[in-house]
């Protein structure tokens, strides 16, 4: 009865568009809906991606394992697979477990992270704690105590490590020299009546970083807001080699614990910290690949619909949201189409991009090597905004009739999630990519229709709480939203791929 009711809706909608008959009134759509409602595997994919592989940093074993697994699933579903080499990093990085504790007058387990591609400890390392020196005089006074010490540095962590390059050391040296010259000038002119503006010494965290390393510190510790974020060493990664690896642990400590420890150090009380941080490197270069599942078009194989999201994820957590919540519905959409026996008119590319977190590396690379394909891409669908339910799509006038017909079956998928096709005003084509993989396509003038997302049932989801932090885990996902997204994506992508023409780009971007 359910299928009969749906068929009635199909035939009532025939008058809305001639494309409705061609694109959507077929058994494939019915089978996608049935499979999506009764055997949706989105969360199984996410479980494997997040909990079997974990954080999937490019250059890591976890990323390579995840890429191989995703490729194997595409093949299992009957798709062609391209392991598309998109770049390399000079060394690899694998994160192991980490722990720390405070000992002495008080004891507590420490809540901290370290950025990727930074040093771990040499086993368990224990030492006293000092506040960093800010002047040459302070450094000289305390240099004998630096060996074997953990150093509290100023500033608040933004997730990135302190720059240990020679260029950064020269910058810090110039600040120190300017401060010393200004201090000398003030001393020499202390008796002068001439009014001078108050001098504010230059500063930055770990001002005497090189000198402290040479003196034998164990590592540096910086205050970090909760939830803790840990990114990667973007300033040094391209210059690393296995013979030139970072050697000083860079610890980002819970701001509340940092305050307690800082106050004790200020009072010159006994504070001993112990850390064991297993950050491991491997010789490179380590190549990374976009994983592209191909459903070859039957009539227009050289025209394309792209759907996907980035496969890589920061490794301080497990990438359950950023971007497991984008990659796995895209994978499931592909499975639903294949399970339904779909043979689209134009080629569907399911792209799991590499290196998005390192600067859109995978999508940029693909575009640079596939310029000839760009005019023949009907749309690039990208999911990278969290595990919310798609509730709308905004389209230009030229696409309106096609997209109204294509999206009609979505009404029968889940009545809890009403879906609207909205009008979209033309916008200027961006000059630079925005911060996700659809950005480079938009720069090239490729349509990048995307779904409007909502927390329809009020699960109090906050993407900012999770983004690039330790909370980016499987349990933060929302299964019913994710499963709905996969089914809806399959329907819409199938519909666009099955039109007898490319989506009309007129009015999508402002004409110059």
Mean pLDDT: 93
Write the CATH homologous superfamily of the largest domain: Zn peptidases
| Poorly predicted spans | 1-25
Largest sheet: 11 strands, mixed
What number of structural domains do the residues give?
A: 2
β-strand number: 14
CATH class of the largest domain: Alpha Beta
Give me the CATH architecture of the largest domain, please.
3-Layer(aba) Sandwich
Characterise the protein shown here.
This protein has 512 residues and is of the alpha/beta class. It folds into two domains: 16-90 and 285-497, Zn peptidases (Aminopeptidase); 106-183 and 201-269, 3-Layer(bba) Sandwich (Glucose Oxidase, domain 1), CATH 3.50.30. It has 15 helices and 14 strands. The strands form two sheets. Strands 1, 2, 3, 4, 5, 6, 7, 8, 9, 10 and 11 form an eleven-stranded mixed sheet that branches. Strands 13-12-14 form a three-stranded mixed sheet. Helix 10 crosses helix 15 and helix 12 packs across helix 15. It is elongated, with a radius of gyration of 27 Å.
At a glance:
The chain is α/β, with parallel strands linked by helices.
């Amino acid at each position: 009865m359910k299928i009969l009711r749906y068929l009635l809706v199909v035939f009532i909608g025939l008058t809305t568009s001639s494309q409705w008959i061609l694109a959507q009134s077929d058994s494939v759509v019915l089978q996608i809906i049935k499979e999506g409602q009764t055997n949706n595997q989105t969360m199984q994919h996410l479980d494997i991606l997040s909990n079997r592989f974990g954080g999937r940093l490019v250059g890591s074993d976890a990323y390579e394992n995840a890429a191989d697994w995703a490729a194997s699933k595409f093949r299992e579903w009957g798709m062609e697979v391209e392991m598309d080499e998109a770049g390399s990093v000079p060394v690899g990085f694998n994160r192991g477990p980490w722990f720390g504790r405070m000992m002495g007058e008080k004891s507590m387990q420490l809540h901290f992270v370290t950025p990727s591609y930074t040093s771990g400890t040499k086993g368990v390392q224990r030492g006293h704690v000092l506040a960093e020196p800010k002047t040459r005089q302070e450094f000289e006074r305390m240099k004998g105590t630096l060996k074997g010490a953990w150093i509290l540095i100023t500033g608040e962590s933004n997730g990135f490590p302190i720059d240990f390059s020679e260029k950064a050391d020269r910058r810090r040296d110039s600040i120190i020299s300017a401060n010393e010259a200004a201090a000398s000038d003030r001393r020499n002119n202390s008796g002068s009546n001439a009014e001078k503006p108050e001098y504010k010494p230059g500063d930055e965290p770990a001002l005497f970083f090189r000198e402290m390393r040479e003196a034998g510190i164990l590592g540096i510790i910086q205050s970090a807001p909760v939830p803790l974020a840990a990114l990667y060493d973007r300033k040094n990664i391209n210059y690393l080699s296995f013979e030139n690896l970072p050697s000083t642990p860079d610890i980002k400590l819970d701001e509340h614990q940092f305050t307690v420890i800082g106050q004790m150090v200020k009072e010159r009380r006994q504070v001993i910290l112990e850390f064991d941080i297993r950050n491991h490197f491997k010789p490179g270069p380590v190549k990374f690949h976009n994983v592209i599942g191909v459903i070859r078009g039957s009539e227009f194989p050289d025209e394309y619909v792209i759907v996907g999201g980035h496969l890589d994820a920061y490794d301080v957590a497990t990438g359950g949201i950023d971007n497991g919540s984008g990659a796995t519905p895209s994978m499931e959409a592909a499975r639903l189409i294949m399970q339904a026996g779909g043979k689209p008119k134009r080629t569907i590319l399911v792209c799991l991009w590499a290196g998005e977190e390192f600067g859109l590396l995978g999508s940029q690379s693909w575009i640079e090597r596939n310029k000839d394909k760009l005019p023949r891409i009907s749309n690039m669908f990208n999911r990278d905004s969290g595990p919310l339910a798609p509730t709308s799509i905004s389209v230009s006038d030229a696409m309106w009739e096609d997209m109204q017909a294509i999206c009609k079956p979505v009404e029968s998928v889940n009545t809890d999630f009403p879906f609207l096709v909205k009008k979209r005003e033309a916008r200027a084509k961006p000059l630079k990519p925005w911060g996700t993989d659809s950005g480079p396509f938009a720069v090239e003038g490729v349509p990048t229709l995307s779904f409007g997302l909502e927390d329809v049932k009020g699960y109090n989801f906050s993407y900012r709480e999770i983004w690039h932090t330790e909370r980016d885990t499987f349990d933060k996902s929302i299964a019913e939203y994710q499963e709905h997204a996969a089914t809806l994506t399959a329907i819409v992508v199938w519909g666009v791929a099955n039109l007898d023409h490319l989506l009309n780009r007129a009015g999508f971007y402002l004409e110059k």
